[in-house]
Amino acid sequence: MRLSKKTGMVAAGAAALALTLTACGGEGAGSGGSDGAAGDGDENVQVGVAMPTQTYERWIQDGNNVKAGLEDLGYTVDLQFANDDIPTQTQQIDSMITEGVDVLIIASIDGTALTSQLEAAAAANIPVIAYDRLIRDSENVDFYTTFDNFAVGVAQANALLRGLGYLDENGEATGEEGPYNIELFAGSPDDNNASFFFDGAMSILQPLLDDGTLVVPSGQTDFDTVSTQRWELETAQSRMEDLLTSTYTGGDEELNGVLAPADVLSRGILNALTGAGMGPTLEDGLPVVTGQDAEIANIKLINDGVQSSTIFKDTRLLAEQAVTATESFVDGEEPEANDTETYDNGVKVVPSYLLEVETVFAEDIQPVLIDSEYYTTEEVESGQAAD
Ligand code: BGC
Hints:
- This protein is α/β, with parallel strands linked by helices and about 375 residues long.
- It has two domains: about 5-140 and about 315-355, Response regulator (Rossmann fold), CATH 3.40.50; about 150-310 and about 360-370 and about 375-380, Response regulator (Rossmann fold).
- The protein is about 35% helix and about 10% strand.
- The chain has twelve helices and twelve strands.
- The chain has helices spanning about 55-70, 85-100, 115-125, 150-165, 190-210, 225, 235-245, 265-275, 295-305, 315-330, 365-370, 375-380, and strands at about 45-50, 75-80, 105, 130, 145, 180-185, 215, 255-260, 290, 310, 350-355, 360.
- Helix 5 (about 190-210) links the parallel strand 6 (about 180-185) and strand 7 (about 215).
- Helix 1 packs parallel to helix 10.
- The radius of gyration is 23 Å and the shape is globular.
- The two termini are about 45 Å apart.
- The site of beta-D-glucopyranose has 12 residues, from loops.
- Beta-D-glucopyranose (BGC) binds near residues 132, 187, 191, 293 and 313.
């Protein structure tokens, strides 16, 4: 049980993490009661939102959506992006704690690098919500809002198999037997999600590797070897270039598909493939490349028949969840979790809210992305998001 940061009063029962904002020094306070119900006092609520980078569009959307949702509740928001630099992010979180934020929402760069920041947050009774990426090795993570990350990997593997022609659009075997030559990529090893994506994908792919339907001609199949530090496009591109040189020159082996765990890496991989003269489209024999995030540049590539598929994670819904969880903490309640088993951060199982994901092939762009107003037709055609 923690002390209310601003009042020093002991919060009760389910309100263990609560901020008794109604007793917030009397200024603009509501009834002064201890239920902390949102009311006039909400303009005093300040939330720190730490996002990893602005170089990847999804995090800009996440940051802006979370900020807008919190501001709609009348909260003040300190939104920071850290340029994928760990010291920058730790400094930003330190400043938020010094500023006296009431709740922290953090999408970490390195999920293991925030232990001392989280200790300081706990000492100041600031609830911490891990956003999309689990923060590891700390007992001071109070809630986790994310997508079903294992399911993302499963969906990527199934999309790869469909792209290769092994499965049909209903996920049924087509009767084609392969063998198919594939290469595997994983995300950043310091991002807890990366192993969830990879394990989810391998839960589908491994049996087919074992029975010879799939072959990885480079022999590179373990997570450490195929991971991509800090999710960098250039790193994926140069690994793909090296693989093409080492394994696919001389015409002995033909590459049929690549498991790419995120659109940023898919772009690097596609640069390497087209740079080596493959394609330029799937119809011209470009290998099947998967993805994740439905980044606008990649949706254009899918629309143009270059990238095969992506996994859509509606960041609007994730932002909404983070806002709802924040409001619960502010109101003195525990946020509603729909998973209390999966996300063990090494110290504790963090109560989580998991959202569902959708696979997007070219024919899904209209119903899934345009009809839901995630993108406009113009954005899909130009490959650029309008502000
Ligand atoms: C996110 C992905 C994203 C990746 C790279 C992961 O933690 O879950 O959506 O593609 O980071 O930014």
